[in-house]
Design brief:
Layout (H helix, E strand, L loop, with lengths): L20 H14 L3 H10 L14 H22 L6 H21 L10
Helix pairs in contact: 3-4
Length: 120
């Protein structure tokens, strides 16, 4: 059944297309400029879909990543304790979550980007 979302996807099929060297080069340049493969570009074009340009993620300061990893580890420890049904008082849990929220707020403030320009 083609409409059944739980059905296994059909294996990919090859479609051969003739194009001049100039056409292929132009299409490949267009695909590369959008950060997609030539196959993705052709599928989207034939399906009438709009491709979004893939952008490289902005560089992130290593110290920010370390801080986020440390906070994530603290959250994981709390989750593990809760999943093992270890006795943790609600007060202790709330205090730790408030501390984590404050740490995240301080990180957010320290690494805040300028607001993007409004579209008009």
């Amino acid at each position: 059944m083609a409409d059944d979302p739980s059905a296994a996807p059909e294996p990919a099929r090859w479609i051969k297309l003739r194009a001049s060297a100039a056409e292929r080069a132009r299409w490949q340049a267009l695909a590369a400029g959008r950060g997609v493969s030539l196959s993705e570009l052709i599928r989207a074009s034939l399906s009438g879909l709009r491709l979004r340009t893939r952008r490289e993620p902005p560089p992130v300061a290593p110290e920010l990543l370390r801080e986020l990893a440390r906070i994530g580890n603290n959250l994981n420890q709390l989750a593990r304790a809760a999943n093992r049904h270890e006795p943790v008082t609600a007060t202790a849990l709330l205090a730790r979550l408030i501390a984590i929220d404050r740490e995240l707020g301080a990180l957010r403030a320290a690494h805040r980007r300028a607001d993007p320009p409004e579209r008009g």
